[in-house]
TrEMBL record:
Domain of life assignment: Bacteria
The protein's name: Glycosyl hydrolases family 39 N-terminal catalytic domain-containing protein
Keyword Hydrolase: yes
Gene3D superfamilies documented for this protein: Glycosidases
Pfam families attached to this UniProt entry: Glyco_hydro_39
Length: 278
């Protein structure tokens, strides 16, 4: 019996190997077939693509003709890339933080206000070098006139009106930079930055009203536009309250603005018709 054991073991191992091979064959076949299909697709075949340039479908509406500088940095972020941006032929470039980052407004020892737009002028020059015009977010509250911080109400609403007036005279004024069709947006996301409301003590409607008064006081200026409220979304309650207040008080309003955080430009197009029904 002991002499026959190796033969039985050998036969047993052969049987196991045969069974394993039979089990593995279908998987081996599938693997070979999948590899063949993958390699066949990877090689590809030439496609005959024909573009008929004489057949006009519809005009392309570029979504890239207006940009936002953002103002996340105090330095002029546009200057190093202005030539690249120019290749996109932008119409407007929006900038904010113009008052708090660049110390446009200072209060003298006698209590009067002084204005220094040199730093903002440099950014505007970069915008003009791209072929675009500036779109100003009139933000945030200059520390020189703020009741507390840059997100607070001013100590004197008439001083806020004066800041807006001097800004418009600087860039839209015929004695200033002398630009036409500049757009001025009152504040940036008031529902987020400063927790402004459309009622109560910290009222965006008051902020807008005095900004418009400043715009009306601007002397010897070219055509420009002013609007708001630049909220973080198209909030119906905000827009309705804003539009009602503007209408009741006969305030100038050239555009209504809001923001939309998305990487899909079509989302903006979908929201625009909704504003018509508010």
């Amino acid at each position: 019996m002991k002499k026959r054991m190796p033969h039985r073991r050998s036969a047993y191992l052969s049987l196991i190997a045969t069974l394993l091979l039979l089990v593995a064959l279908p998987f081996l076949y599938i693997g070979i077939q999948t590899t063949h299909e993958f390699l066949t697709r990877a090689t590809g075949t030439k496609a005959a693509i024909i573009v008929d340039t004489t057949n006009l479908l519809e005009p392309i509406q570029p979504s890239w003709n207006s940009f936002a500088q953002g103002g996340e940095e105090q330095k002029n972020m546009l200057k190093p890339v202005s030539s690249k941006i120019a290749e996109l032929s932008p119409r407007y470039i929006r900038i904010d933080h113009i008052y708090d980052h660049h110390r446009v407004v200072r209060r003298t020892a006698s209590g009067t206000l002084e204005f220094d737009f040199k730093a903002v002028d440099d950014i505007v020059a970069s915008i003009l070098n791209t072929g675009a015009k500036p779109f100003f977010a009139l933000s945030y509250m200059p520390q020189a006139i703020a009741q507390s911080d840059i997100l607070s109400v001013p100590r004197d609403w008439n001083e806020w009106a004066l800041v807006v007036q001097r800004t418009i005279e600087r860039y839209s004024g015929k004695d200033g930079i002398n630009l036409s069709d500049v757009q001025y947006e009152v504040w940036n996301e008031p529902d987020l930055f400063g927790n402004w409301k459309y009622a109560g003590n910290k009222n965006y409607l008051t902020l807008y009203e005095f900004a418009v008064k400043g715009a009306q006081n601007a002397q010897n200026v070219n055509e420009f536009k002013i609007g708001g409220p630049a909220t973080t979304q198209l909030y119906k309650n905000w827009i309705v309250a804003f539009a009602d207040y503007v209408t009741q008080n006969k305030l100038r309003l050239d555009f209504i603005s809001w923001h939309r955080y998305t990487t899909d430009p079509t989302q903006f197009a979908k929201r625009c018709p909704a504003a018509n029904y508010l």
